[in-house]
Amino acid sequence: MKALRIIGGILLILLAIFFIGGTLLPKTYTIHRSTLINATDSVVYMNVADLNNFLKWNPWTKMEPSAKVTISGTTAQPGHLWEWLGKETGQGQMELITAKPYSLLEFELKFFEPFESSAISFFNFEQTNEGTKVTWGLQGEAKNMGDRWMGLFMDMMMDKDFNNGLQSLKELSEK
Hints:
Elements: H1 2-24, E1 28-37, H2 41-49, H3 51-57, H4 59-63, E2 68-72, E3 81-86, E4 90-100, E5 104-113, E6 117-128, E7 131-141, H5 145-173
Antiparallel strand pairs: 1-7, 2-3, 3-4, 4-5, 5-6, 6-7
């Protein structure tokens, strides 16, 4: 009986931490990574803005090359859309919503499976004397307590994918 009380007390404390702690966590998250690419801003920009080129370097296509992919809309224009369905990558879509040539791209990112969520993925391009500085970021809103806790670890979870993706973008752009 004493063991059940101890286990119950521990569970109660964990639930309190989850809910009370969750209310103190930020309602939004933003992560970003940058790299310098020895190529013009126009080349780097089009390797992101043209979703057919995006497929060549993004880490999720490399993770599951057999995923079903559909690309539609006008290249590098708002409405350009990438939809995917895969066993590893789930189901989702990424739609270009803002295109400022050679400086900014924003995509609305929606996930349908294995869970529903949305975020804004952005790319900033800055021409320098050494090449083009690219910053790839992701920002979203935590809609519930689970999202708030996930947002706390989002930076760590996406670090490898963003760094690998930027390295592949660099290799593609510098060819």
